Amino acid sequence: MSETLSTEKVFLASIFHDIGKFYIRANFSDLKGKVKEEYKYFIESSGKFSPRHQEWGAYFYKNSSLPFKNEIEGAILNHHNPNSMLSKLVSIADHISATERDSNKNEKEDKSNEEKIRNMKSMLSLVSFGDQPIKAKYKKVSKLSQNLDLLDKEDENVEETYKKLWLEFEKVINELPKNDDLKISTPFIEKIYYVLKEYTSNIPSAFYYDEPDISLFSHLSTTAGIAVALFKQFEVELLSGNERILNEIDSKNYNEKILGIIKGDVSGIQDFLYNISQEKAVKKLRGRSFYIAYLLEIIAKHIVENEGLSISNILFNGGGHFYLIVPAKTIDRLEEYQRYIDDIMYKAHGIELSINIAGEKISPKELNSDIYMRISELVERKKNSRLKSIIAQDYKKVFDVINLSENTCPYCRRKIKNEVCDFCDSFAELGENLSKKEAFKFEKMKKLPEKILTFNDVFKMLGYEIKFESGPFSFLINKTGDVDLTKYMFYTKSANYISRTENGEIADLETIANGSLGIKKWGVLRGDVDNLGKIFREGLGKNAPISKTATLSQEIEIFFGKFLEDIVSSENFKKCTVIYSGGDDFFIIGPWNNLPELAETIQNSFKKYSGNNKNISISMGISISPAKKYPVYRIARQAGEFLENAKEYERNGFQKNALCFLNDLIGWEEFEDYKEKKKLLNLIIKEKGVTRNSLYVLKNMFEQYKISKFENKIFKVWRLFYYFTNLKKRYKNAESEIDRFLNEILCKKDNKLYEKLNSLIKWVQFETKEGI
């Protein structure tokens, strides 16, 4: 069989192989006859009467402006019954990606009515442990960037929504910029990937026999990653026309380790992020968090490009780590990549920041969620010997004493001139650009820099340079609201909302503090998803296929990367600034009084987004700065400690799923009651005019109560009644409110006071205090 294979053709054929599942659901009745006539032989020879998804997919590709029309059309058309090496590669990758299917299921699938329309189930709503009963929720058919409410049942009018979404998708595809020099690493290929991600992430892959819980995009992208990895593993054989290896791989008994999984992980994020001066602190934090997120992206791209792979071979990147699917032979070169990365990272950051990569060769049958756990263990072991290649080469580099008496930057330890560190300042400049520019892109470097003088030199050493300019291959920075992919490549992976002053400048810490209600302080809110490791290990069932884990990863990624930005940029929280939010965690600076409400809003939104699944929750910690110009790193670390305290909070059968605020732990199921008590006390003080001194008296009484409890003594509750009685006599306009508040905070059966009274009092103290 004579044909010319290439990585580009393998990628396009595999990433579009099931696009007909999208097209057929739009139910264009006027086109059905044309598709049937075009592929009459294929339909009738299969014993069918109407076009199936492979015919619809082939028809779309043939009539699009995409390249290699004949070869790709044929591969899409024949991927269920391969008649070429290209269609055979796609078929094999398709089966490996969807390991939950077997041949019996495929037979039943073919006999089903493919025009049956279905919504996709939310993967987050399906997470369960053991035999827990769950109630699945459905996603509305929409673009990835649209955060729409989940449905209790399927939408009866979903067909029209499919049609509208398809027409928009087709328009974007047909308006792609022409590319005469098409290579697997060109922006054109990347653009196709992102367009598919935006338009096929909220529609299901299988919807007839299998559960509609895996997104079409997750299946398309993992199939493409697998197909490209297989092609590169056996490139020599396949280009010589030897397709015997494909028949062997497709056999049920094939167990050769022909694929590989790589994990990359960054160590030292916290030290790096917060090791900054107070000058331009917000800009530096924004710049550094962006740098961390895209440093991993660039390293992943560096490996993928050097191996001749595609963007689909990056299975996941976020939350400080990435996963790649590669040919098995790439694993043999991992130490070479590690040495190169070590050298760059040491020159840039010394021992402060490091990237560890590890990988394992696997057979196609091992491509499931278990491999992630094994690779993670390998990476953790490597962290104990990080920079091993640098130490082996010249241990004095690492262990020599730095003379700090010289003119040295106190943060990055570089020698500087005129008290200015160009390297540290480059992060402030990056943060400034992120706040003022519309978009950015990564441009390939032809020549590597001789020295690392700025953050951009690190990227350049890995083959890319960041440039802030708009265009169809640029990434949109401010992505609140709708996103137009005819104008941009995609949008940034992390939330980027920044609070601004009236003249459009980035709000500094003092400005943020001055925007507070009551006492003028800024604070930090940090949070992340509880039990994330357990969710991926156990929550999707045993040996979950990678397309399933990819769907879950994407649902979490888009919430913290896009939807959280929509929340923070809303009117209630526009004085807050997102320092980072991506993967599954976030770090936000804002006026202290905005943060409890913002935390509750994020919690409620995520709860709703995950279909009120009790197995999915977020814990958070809030820390408030004692002064406007207090070091950010101290408050950030304290917020991190409070977050850990929230995760350790156990009560009444609940664990984690909590907020630590003003040194108290509040479960999210307790927060509404806690907030209502605070509102009542605030009303008593602020609106009814009761003296603020009552807050201090109440606080002292609570401290006496805690001491009595600790010493097993009886609390003299009569003092509380006596004081409240006098208050009511003095403030008759607040008599009923004071009575109600006493009943809210005191259990008269056992004279126990409300356990969270201390933080509740502090909250009102802070909110009703004027000035600094």
Q: Main beta sheet, described?
A: 6 strands, mixed
Q: Please tell me how large the radius of gyration is.
A: 29 Å
Structural class: alpha+beta
Q: Please state the average pLDDT score.
A: 89
Strand arrangement within the widest β-sheet reads 12-13-11-14-17-18
In helices, the fraction of residues equals 40-55%
Shape: globular
Stretches where pLDDT is under 50 for at least 5 consecutive residues are 100-112
Describe this structure in words.
The chain has 772 residues and is of the alpha+beta class. It is built from 33 helices and 20 strands. Mean pLDDT is 89; it is low at 100-112.
List the helices and strands and how they pair.
Elements: H1 7-15, H2 20-25, H3 29-38, H4 40-45, H5 53-62, H6 69-77, H7 85-97, H8 103-110, E1 120-121, H9 123-126, E2 138-139, H10 158-174, H11 187-200, H12 216-233, H13 235-239, H14 244-249, E3 259-267, H15 269-274, H16 281-306, E4 314-318, E5 321-327, H17 328-331, H18 334-349, E6 354-362, H19 370-383, H20 388-393, H21 395-399, H22 422-436, E7 439-444, H23 455-461, E8 464-467, E9 475-476, E10 490-491, H24 509-514, E11 522-529, H25 532-538, H26 546-568, E12 577-582, E13 585-591, H27 594-609, E14 618-624, H28 632-647, E15 650-651, E16 654-655, E17 658-661, E18 664-667, H29 668-687, H30 693-710, H31 717-730, H32 735-745, E19 746-747, E20 752-753, H33 757-768
Parallel strand pairs: 9-10, 14-17
Antiparallel strand pairs: 1-2, 3-5, 3-6, 4-5, 7-8, 7-9, 11-13, 11-14, 12-13, 15-16, 17-18, 19-20
Helix pairs in contact: 1-6, 1-7, 1-12, 5-6, 6-7, 7-12, 10-11, 11-12, 12-26, 16-22, 26-27, 29-32, 29-33, 30-33, 31-32
